Amino acid sequence: MATAVKIENLSKYYRLGVINNGVLWQDMQSYFARLFNVEDPNKEIGREEVYDKEGFWALSGIDLEIEQGDRVAIMGRNGAGKSTLLRILSRITVPTKGCFHVKGRIASLLEVGTGFHRELTGRENIFMNGAILGMKRREVARKLDEIIAFSEIDHHHIDTPVKRYSSGMYVRLGFAIAAHLESEILIADEVLAVGDIAFRQKAIGKMNELSKEYGRTVLFVSHMPGIVYQLCNKGIVLEHGKVTVEMCPVEEAGTKYLELIGTVE
């Protein structure tokens, strides 16, 4: 199988406290310098980057290779680095060290309401998300009815600004968009914990279908073993920003994770 995601020595360091330059345009300069991996024009001459006790490594030396069509569970305690890893792969934040290579477009469901403009209607947000993925308007329009039907949001609410949606409606619409628009990699972070059981099972079935029939790659974070075992075929475990259980069958990774948190003797 072709490699969909390759991660090499990926690390992310966060400094705590006040870290800006005090001036907006200088902060923007520093941000783009980090983004394009060039020298920060606001750094003091002769000063090297210091990683001290005032900050922490959310990720440290992650090496990972994910094949196309894999459905990978990323497990670990709260604060283990799972969400940070997904945010870097979604290009929401940049790594401090290391690099990653992604083959194809990514659709991300990182938290309730991610990728939505609160003042736009559900219908308008579908078109906006399609544009973000690089799709033409007519391509999104062709899938529009299918997306709305899958989300189970009626015709009255789909033309209502999403700021009035419940968390369950956010998840249903967000998942329907991510599952039906043309992305090669689907990233989901605990979002299926929100909403009803019937839609959760429907979403799991859709992700399995996308992976098995269309070769989509799925990266999934959840603290609910039942969902993980239904959806994923492989898994890893993170602890303190490091991979403590390498890629293996999901049942094996799940057992080791439960041992780690002390629920299995």
Characteristic terms for this protein:
single chain; 265 residues; alpha/beta; 6-stranded mixed β-sheet; 3-stranded antiparallel β-sheet; 8 helices
Strand arrangement within the widest β-sheet reads 5-6-7-3-8-9
Q: How many individual helices?
A: 8
How much beta, percentage-wise? 15-25%
Number of extended strands: 9
In short:
This protein has eight helices and nine strands. It has 265 residues and is of the alpha/beta class. The strands form two sheets. It has a six-stranded mixed β-sheet with strand order 5-6-7-3-8-9, with helices on both faces. A three-stranded antiparallel β-sheet has the order 2-1-4, covered by helices on one side.
Explain what you see.
The chain has 265 residues and is an alpha/beta fold. It is 36% helix and 25% strand. The strands form two sheets. The chain has a six-stranded mixed β-sheet, sandwiched between helices. Strands 2-1-4 form a three-stranded antiparallel β-sheet, with helices on one face. Helix 3 crosses helix 4 (137-151) and helix 4 (137-151) packs across helix 5 (167-180). The model has no long low-confidence stretch (mean pLDDT 85).
